[in-house]
Amino acid sequence: MTTDQTVLTNDLLASFDESVLDVDKACTLPPTCYITDEFLEFERRALFDHEWLCVGRVDRVANPGDYFTKTVNGERLIIARAKDGAIHAFSAICQHRGMQIVDDCGTCGTFTCPYHQWMYGLDGRLLGAPAMERTAGFTKSEWGLPNLLVEEWLGFLFVNFDATAQPLAPSLGRYEPFLEHYDLSNAVAPDSFTLTDLPWNWKVMFENFNDGYHANRLHHTIQDFCPSNLATFPVPWDDSSNVIFRTNGYTHIDGGFNATTKALLPVFPELTEEERWRSTFALVPPTLCLGTAPDQAFYFIVTPKTVETIDVEIGYLLHPSALKHPMFDHLFAMSDTGVQVFVKQDQDATAKVQRGMHSRYAARGRYSWQEESHVQFNRWLVQRYRKHWPIINGS
Fold first, then answer.
1. Which strands make up the sheet holding 147-153, listed edge to edge?
2. Which contiguous run of DSSP H or E holds residue 301?
3. β-strand 75-81 against 126-128: which pairing, if any?
4. Residue 226 and residue 382: Cα distance in Å, rounded?
5. pTM above 0.90?
6. What is the pLDDT of residues 234-261, one digit of tens each?
7. Reduced to 3 states, what is the DSSP secondary structure of residue 388?
């Protein structure tokens, strides 16, 4: 392949150097990285084939036999809890003729392909294959559904297509002290909801989620209690880290992202006073965005569909006492209504950012100090881009 047939040129690779400088010198990634199909396919190989990908909360498979299905990195997967309590993730594609075995969620003891009745266990093992006794050299143990690595972190489930991947949790240690008093493993999660076919690149979503610069500019009035100038980046970036995060202070204790600017639901009782004066916003790329406020944590699970469309699952995590509050339904509805104001404003902005990437005048912009997280995200990306960049013309 020649350089005029691909966007993955050595010049593009070299241009990333400008995006990983200190925040006062760095500039944004080239627009090409957000708008070309070829670049997303490269990211699928360089990132999504090797990194830990969030698939949801562990309470979706709370009991043995529970399962759900999800499209992850273009593959339909089954996530199931086996009888011994272990959680497994494996392909939903029958190893006989390629039919998708199941496409829902529920509870069962086995999975049976409706086409020819091949039967699989909750761990993906092939348990039965009718009329295969005359097939030369056929051994059931060799025809199970391909498994992925699975890891649980603070109640979130992650999978990894790379069988040699290192564990995830050690690489998230920088952020864990900021979550300790939330006890997210035991938090309760009302039903999440999914926004589909949102018209922007997955990185635009990540950048917007962790962008302190727009906080009380785009969201003026409703987010004045959590202003941009109170953004902080408390721990120096470490190239071995898989989390990028910031804190953002409040102008009053127990702030809330709603019209009252106050927490509406019960505050997590173990929080320190310092923690009640701030939010945190974190990226666990390439799929999970996670934030905290005194009365809730909130998460976005991002799934790229095309280079310019994504699906986003949005959910909340609350202290168990919240569900016992006599006015919980009303308070939760008020809280969610407030969040939707932010969501709509962000949707308008990110859609216009994506469209702007196509302009001949789209620039590689400079960063404010309030965008330190973006440079850290660039560093996370670029070290992986460099590792997997194709060799072109032997160079």
1. 53-57, 156-160, 147-153, 87-91, 75-81, 66-72, 105-107
2. strand 296-306
3. unpaired
4. 31
5. yes
6. 878 889 999 999 999 999 999 999 999 9
7. helix
